[in-house]
Every structure is written in C-alpha cells, then in structure tokens.
Amino acid sequence: MKAWIDIDNPPQVQYLAPFIKAFEQRGHEVVVTARDYGITTQLLAAGGIRHRLVGREFSPSRLGKVGGTAARALQLAASFARTTNPSMLLSTSRSGVMAAWLLGVPSFMVLDYEHAEVRSFRAFGTTVMHPGVIDGAVFAAKGFASERLVPFNGLKEDISFAGRDLGAVAAHDFGVPRDGEALVLVRPPSETTHYRRTESLDLTRDVMARLAADPAVRVVFSPRHAHQVVELRSHSWRNEPIVVERPIEFVALLKGVDSVVAAGGTMLREAAYLGLPAISLFRSETGAVDRWLEDLGAVTMVSRAAELDRVQWRRGTREPRFAHHPEVVEELTERMVGVR
C-alpha cells in the first residue's frame, strides 16, 4: 500500500505527521507532498520529514483561491504520472482531495471544526474523521453519508501529541530575564480564512493594548502575517514583547510560556491539552470542541478586552482537565488501511 499525505499549511504538520510513522510501522510506503506556505517547509525540515513541494501561497482573493486550488490539484495529480498511484490520501487540503478524486483514490481528512466550509470535501467523496464531541448529524446535514463519517474518542491534539514524551522536551528559552512577569503567548487571527471576522481583529487589537500596559505580563507574539508584527508598534509596552521570528517546535514553545491567548484554532487547543490557561478571542461561530473545552474550564472565551481584568496571570500553571487518548492515531490508521 502507498499512503499519501498532503500538507497544506503549518498546523497540519503537527497533526498529520504522526500518521507517517503509523503507516510505516505497518510496512506501507508513505509519500508526503506539501504546499510552500508560511513556515510549512521549515517545520517539515525540522522534523526530518521528506516531502515534495507542490504549489505555493494563493492570491487572497476568492478567485485567486479557487484558481490556485484547481491548479495545485492538477499539479498534485500530475506528480504521480511517473510512478504508481497512491492507495489513499490523508489531507485537509481542498486541492489534495480534488487530486485524489482525479486519481480515483479514496481521501480522508481530520476535521475538528464543524462550521468550516466543506462542500468540496463532500463533492469529492472525502471521509471525515472527527472528534466524537461533534455530533455527526451536523455533517450529515451538510450532505455527508453516514459511511463517510468516522467519530473518534479525544481531540485532534491527541494526534499531535501521540508518541511524544512531553517530559523529555525542554521548554524553549526566550533569552529574557523573567523578573516575575508571566509569559503570555499571543496568536492573532488569520486574515485569509473563509470564517474570518472583523470582530476578531478588533478584539485582538484591544487585548494587545491591555496586555501592553500590564507590568505583570510579557507578550510572546507568534504572527500569522508579517504586517501583524508592524502593528505591535502602535502600543506602548511596559515589557518589550518577544516576536517569534523562526519556527519553534510546538511542544517546546508551549512549555516555555505560562498562558496562551489565541483567536481560536490549533494552538489554543494544544495549550488546553497541556493544561495551560488558554483564552480564546475567536468571534466566529463557536464549534463543539471549544464549547466542550469551555465547559471543562480548559478554555476561557472572551468577547471584550475588559474581561481580561478577571484573569490572574500566573507563572508555571499546568492543570490538565480532561483525559488524553494517544491510541487514536493507531485506530484511525487502521480505519484508513482497511479501505481499498
């Protein structure tokens, strides 16, 4: 069997890469393709993952995204012209599943946000593997057949952390004296996703202004776009912020800070998984996973910057609030291997 994994953006490196080892341990060949977008290639290189680059960042316009997706799908399909076709695809990439459809091979995706745009995945027959806290009826209502839905115990982050000895990973040293202040990792919202909201951008700016004025906090800023770094200059900082300018292994990064403030997404849930105080600025429709984490007290949802006044920024706080399921990688791999 030849397993194909296509990686479209940086967060996917974390939750798709563990499947490489799982497939290889079963004696299967693995081919990894990736789009040259953000720090994707740097993360793959840091992990020692061999891959083929296919495609690059798309134009931010709707037409540019549609055209870029179709063009990359054709490139991906053509990349197998001189070799045997893969047996299956694992990807959360629209261009990837389109290419799999062109090649006539089944595709699988890991999805933990039920409000994402999924019409193309439905159209190309992709099987959705999703956390069980998301009601499968939501996907059924979007047109997915029941046999195309695979719920699993745990979260997507169980995949990201599978096989990792977290105790053996040293916390990243940011090279600054702590002097008692808490290091707060801030991840601003993406400005290119289809579910982006102006409210998230505005809230993030207000929160940054509040954190800048707090002497008990030093911000570690992990930008998504270059211009977001420039915007830091608009605030007056009590403690000069640290800008993450190069890829840092995600476990080391999270172990090196005391709290995470993020506009939703993978980093927020990774922080919650490790028991870090995790504060969400996400202003689009809240998904079932985040609601579940909020109910457990693992995530705090914030709608106004003033709500941060109730947050006590502390150093070294780690309080895991839910059971982990490291077995999920093996279970999902068996599910994919069983399809021909």
Structure report:
With 340 residues, this protein is an alpha/beta fold. The protein folds into two domains: 2-161 and 326-337, 3-Layer(aba) Sandwich (Rossmann fold); 168-310, Rossmann fold (3-Layer(aba) Sandwich), CATH 3.40.50.2000. Helices cover 35% and strands 17% of the residues. The chain contains 14 helices and 13 strands. It has helices at 10-16, 18-25, 40-46, 62-78, 94-103, 119-123, 136-141, 156-160, 198-212, 226-230, 250-255, 266-274, 288-296, 328-337; strands spanning 2-7, 29-36, 52-56, 88-91, 107-110, 127-131, 149-152, 182-187, 217-221, 242-243, 259-262, 278-280, 299-301. The strands form two sheets. It has a seven-stranded parallel sheet with strand order 3-2-1-4-5-6-7, with helices on both faces. It has a six-stranded parallel sheet with strand order 10-9-8-11-12-13. Helix 7 links the parallel strand 6 and strand 7 (149-152). Helix 1 runs parallel beside helix 3 (40-46), helix 2 packs across helix 14 and helix 4 packs across helix 5 (94-103). The longest helix has 17 residues, at 62-78. The protein is globular and about 60 Å long. The model has no long low-confidence stretch (mean pLDDT 91).
